[in-house]
Design a protein that fits this description.
Its cofactor is FAD. The two termini are 30 Å apart. With 461 residues, this protein is α+β, with helices and mostly antiparallel strands. Strands 13-10-12-11-15-16-14 form a seven-stranded antiparallel sheet, with helices on both faces. A five-stranded antiparallel sheet has the order 5-6-9-7-8. Strands 1-2-4-3 form a four-stranded mixed sheet, with helices on both faces. Helix 1 runs antiparallel to helix 3, helix 8 (229-242) runs antiparallel to helix 10 (285-300) and helix 13 (347-361) runs antiparallel to helix 14 (390-411). Strand 7 and strand 8 (175-178) form a beta hairpin. It has helices at residues 4-12, 22-29, 49-62, 114-123, 140-146, 153-156, 191-195, 229-242, 253-261, 285-300, 313-324, 326-330, 347-361, 390-411, 435-448, and strands at residues 17-19, 42-45, 66-69, 86-89, 96-100, 105-108, 163-170, 175-178, 203-211, 219-226, 245-252, 274-281, 306-309, 336-341, 366-372, 377-383. 36% of the residues lie in helices and 20% in strands. The mean pLDDT is 97. The longest helix is centred in the C-terminal third of the chain and has 22 residues, at 390-411. It has four domains: 4-92, Uridine Diphospho-n-acetylenolpyruvylglucosamine Reductase, domain 2 (2-Layer Sandwich), CATH 3.30.43; 96-211, Uridine Diphospho-n-acetylenolpyruvylglucosamine Reductase, domain 3 (2-Layer Sandwich); 219-327, Alpha-Beta Plaits (2-Layer Sandwich); 334-444, Alpha-Beta Plaits. Bound molecules: (2R)-2-hydroxypentanedioic acid and zinc ion. Residues 372, 379, 418 line the site of zinc ion. The site of zinc ion has 3 residues, from loops.
Amino acid sequence: MNDPRLDALRQAVPGLHLKTDPADLEHYGRDWTRRWTPAPLAIALPGSSDEVQAIVRWANAQRVALVPSGGRTGLSGGAVAAHGELVVGLERMNRVLAFDAVDRTLTVQPGIALQAVHEAAAAQGLLYPVDFGARGSCSIGGNVATNAGGIRVIRYGNTREWIAGLKLVTGGGELLDLNRGLVKNSSGYDLRHLAIGAEGTLGIVVEATLKLTDPPPPAQTMLLALPSFEVLMRVFAEFRARLRLQAFEFLTDRGLRHVLAHGAGNPFDDVHPYYVVAEFDAADEAQQAAGLAAFEACMEQGWILDGAIAQSQAQAQQLWRLREGITEAVARYRPYKNDVAVRISAMPAFLAEAQALLGEAYPRFEVVWFGHIGDGNLHINVLQPDDVADEAFMAQCGRVTELLADLLRRHGGSISAEHGIGLVKKPYLDSTRSTAEIAVMRGIRGVLDPNGVMNPGKLFD
Ligand code: 2HG
Ligand code: ZN
């Protein structure tokens, strides 16, 4: 291709890996939302921070928009390139750069997969505790960009808690070395935390120093069958009071039906309205007995209708598949995804109102609920029926999300708990952030990205 801007890029970054084949534009231009038609200008695969910096400077000179790109497992369209942008794919920058045993940190490049980080930490006898189903495909750069959460937030918090340092090439082309692995640093604005969750609108993360911790004690994994959400919350309170939880995740019978249809095995004979995968410390006999006692106490109350207790790692994995397999199992319906948060205490009331709202609003669409109880984070997947056209489906989902956003506003919740705003949730940002807050965010974006080259059109306009 003879685009003069690309000729200038080749000159500015000699030896840069550039892809312009239609199949590559298609592949790198879309993410897991699969709702936009990819149309990037080209794909750049830099191999170093210097190359990233040179790309950003070129983008400023040429006024070309950049889309930072990791595993593209995002569910909000944050990595979509549909308007002639240059995709900056970070997959070649995927190395572990350093491990420090005293600091207990791992310094990595942004394109490294989350699972590779887990393995590198485990090789040192330590744990990087952020974890979720896309671990094999998602990259740390994207985790930072969305402040990714996942299945262990109840114990360890979000990605934000585990970032000891970041190197960021800002939209203006400056390389900032933020916090440098310090534990304490009371020296003004912590710019590291601005970059975390910015969805690539302030700059490109070129290096991250991750905190590590002790590996968790051996865990007990249970699958619980429950009659109602109110009871589920009671079981949660009981388990949390008695045990050290590592995870407490829920799904409904619908979610279960989809994962079973997708090949998972069902430990129960009967169908139940709600299910929980609970995992907690079970290092010794006392902790194992406490787990059993909590389970039996809830059984006696009639709260738990049925239960399966994993007897091996393999069985634990089978139980986890029932929860973690949902996204993949429903993917063929190209779901419209809501990823909402309310305070944990507000969950039962919110859920009841949201269920009533969605039941009425989507008489023809199947809605699959699941999520992270301990974090107040609910995933609502609206499945697109085969006989409903894309446009009609998205229009209806958009209208209903307006109503959901109003409900969230009333409950003081958030339109995105962990997936980010991207393109999908951009129209509803004001349900979570005030006008004054958005104005401040816009001002910050203007300072770090004065020419608006960093992921324009995402998060807010
Ligand atoms: C999960 O918790 C992920 O499994 C994906 O956040 C949620 O597919 C979804 O809506
Ligand atoms: Zn989730």
